[in-house]
Amino acid sequence: MHKTPFLHASRIFSAITAALLLLVLTGCNSTITNLTPDTVPANPSQIYTITASFRPVNSQIDVSSIAPRIIIDGQNYKMTKSAVGSDIWEFEYQIPAGRAAVSYYFICNYRLKNGTTTSEVYSELQTMKIAKRYVIRSEATRAPVGSRVSILGAGFTTSDLVYFDRTPTRTVFESASSLSFFVPVVEPGHTYKLSVMGSGASLDVGSFRVDAISFQVTPSAVVLRQGEQQALTFTIPNPAPAGGMLIDVTTDVPVSIVMPEVMVPAGQTSVTVPVQGGKPGNGSLFFRSSAGESSVAVTVTAY
Question: What is the pLDDT of residues 116-165, one digit of tens each?
Fold first, then answer.
C-alpha cells in the first residue's frame, strides 16, 4: 500500500504541525505524543499514516512490553513500529470514500519489569481532517511587474483569483493543481501578501516581493492611415523570466488602435508587435511598469 509519510504532510502544513498536541497523563508511567497533523493533504489512494510516540517515563517499565493500539470508528487496530525511531509507532488507515475527517484515539498496554504488573494508558479523542484544497508553494517569491508566476497546490477552480493584498491579478487556471498569475502594477520594493480566493476557502500562499523594472518603446510616435500597420518594439533590460513578461498597455483612443497583447517571451529582452490604425483620431498608448509610466503619441488619419 502507498504511504503518505507524516513528514511530507507536515512540510505542506507546517503551521498546523507546530500545534501538535502533547498528551501527558498525570500520574501515569508513559506519555503519548500525537505526531499526526490535524489536517493532511488528500491523496488518490485515500491512505493516511497516523503516527504517535509512546514513551515510558518510568525506568521500571519493560520497554519490550509496550503494545500501542489505535481505535478508529470503534474499531481496534494494532500499531507497528516505525523506522523513524524506537518509540514511534504508526498505522496506515484507508479512509472510506466521501469522508473528509476521521476521529481516533490511542491505547497503550505495558508491563513493569517485575513481570506481574500490567497497566494501560490512553489518549483523548483526536481528529484528522483531509484537505482537498491547499497550496504547496509559489514558483517564485519575488519578481518584477508583468512576470508570470505559477502556484502549485490542489483543489483550484476556474473561479479562483490570485490577490496581492487586496489587488486582484490576471490569473490563469491551468489545472486543479496549478494556477499562474501576472504580477500586477503595484509599488515596487515592497512585500505583499499573496492569496488565492474563489468559490472555495481562501488560501494563504505567502509573501511576495515586487522588484522594479523599466522598458523602452520604439518608435516614440505612431502615425497611421486607417487600416495601415506599423511595428512597435518593447525592450526590457534583462531576459524575461519563465512564463514571459506581460506589459500593461492602455489607450485613450481605443477605436483608433488595434494591437495584440504585449508579452516578452521567456528568456528574451524584446518583442515587436503590430499596431493597426482604426478609426481616425489622436491620442496615446500608455505603458505601465514598476519603474513608472510612459506613452507613445498616436495619430490615425483617414485613407
Answer: 777 888 899 999 999 989 999 999 999 988 899 999 999 999 999 999 99
Please give the radius of gyration of the chain, using alpha carbons only, rounded to the nearest integer: 30
| Angle, vertex CA 159, rays to CA 151 and CA 185, nearest 5 | 60
Ordered by start, the domain boundaries in the chain are 6-131, 134-211, 216-301
Give the SS3 label for residue 64.
strand
92-117 in b/e form (b: 16+ CB < 10 A) is bbebeeeeeebebbbbbebbeeeeee
For residues 28-37, average pLDDT: 82
For residue range 279-303, list pLDDT tens digits in order: 999 999 998 766 667 889 999 998 7
How many other CB atoms sit within 10 Å of the CB of residue 208?
Answer: 22
Q: Does domain 134-211 have CATH number 1.10.4030.10?
A: no
Q: Please, where are the H alpha helices in the chain?
A: 6-12, 14-17
HSE-CB of 51 using CA atoms within 13 angstroms: 24
Three-state DSSP at 17 gives helix
Class for the domain spanning 216-301 = mainly beta
Give the C-alpha separation, 66 to 156, whole Å.
Answer: 44
Q: Which of 265, 259, 269 is nearest to 234 (CA)?
A: 269
Dist CA 284 CA 295 (whole Å): 6
Place of cell 495601415: 228
